[in-house]
Amino acid sequence: MNPAVLQQSYDRFAARYDAAFIGQQRPKIVALASRLPDESPAVDLGCGTCLARRITGRAFIGLDRSRGMLGQGRGPRVQADLSRLPFADGSIAVALCVTALIDFLDPAPVARELARVLRPGGALAVSVLKHEDVDGLLRALDDAGLEVVERLDLAQDFGFVARRRQGGGGAKPADAGAADGGT
């Protein structure tokens, strides 16, 4: 879908979002956030109305493309696209992304951005609807240097907890010696 049209749709729906989706989102937010370390800075990517901050009490920086959704939230908020995060390399300790990748046909650019902004060892908790391209997401996370350490069944969604590999990049530590014959 056209990003501008999608943003306008979310802007128009913002005032009604919580009433329509809090029951669906709360269990996912609680399950995923509880698996993240209590470190800062922490960002809620695709935060919508900042439900994660309100539900968990954690000091998430809310990031969303929709100004209308952000206007419904509280706390620090940033309007930006998930594929172009406005954070310095390695500056984020923890990232939460609840059902926000539904708007991206290809998760690879978002996965690369997440890996770029997460500090080495930084944690990501993400959920995707079960009918989405879950295998494509897992490949994108792995290729970006994000190692999935836990998988969750969250009713309509699958959840994943991942860590940024210490060396960053897509190469897994075990693969590092393969190119030179393991020497």
List descriptors.
183 residues, alpha/beta, Rossmann fold, seven-stranded mixed β-sheet, 5 helices, globular, disordered C terminus
Structure description:
This protein has 183 residues and is an alpha/beta fold. The chain has one domain (3-175): Vaccinia Virus protein VP39 (Rossmann fold, 3-Layer(aba) Sandwich), CATH 3.40.50.150. The protein is 34% helix and 26% strand. It has helices spanning 3-33, 51-56, 67-71, 108-117, 134-143; strands at residues 42-45, 60-64, 77-79, 92-98, 118-129, 146-154, 157-164. Strands 3-2-1-4-5-7-6 form a seven-stranded mixed sheet, sandwiched between helices. α4 (108-117) runs parallel beside α5 (134-143). The radius of gyration is 16 Å and the shape is globular.
Strand content: 25-35%
Number of helices: 5
Provide the domain count. Answer: 1
Query: Which sequence of strands runs across the widest sheet?
Result: 3-2-1-4-5-7-6
Q: Give me the secondary-structure category.
A: alpha/beta
CATH class: Alpha Beta
What is the CATH homology-level superfamily? Vaccinia Virus protein VP39
String of helices and strands: HEHEHEEHEHEE
CATH fold name, please? Answer: Rossmann fold
Architecture (CATH level 2) name? 3-Layer(aba) Sandwich
- The percentage helix is 25-40%
Q: Roughly how many Å is the radius of gyration?
A: 16 Å
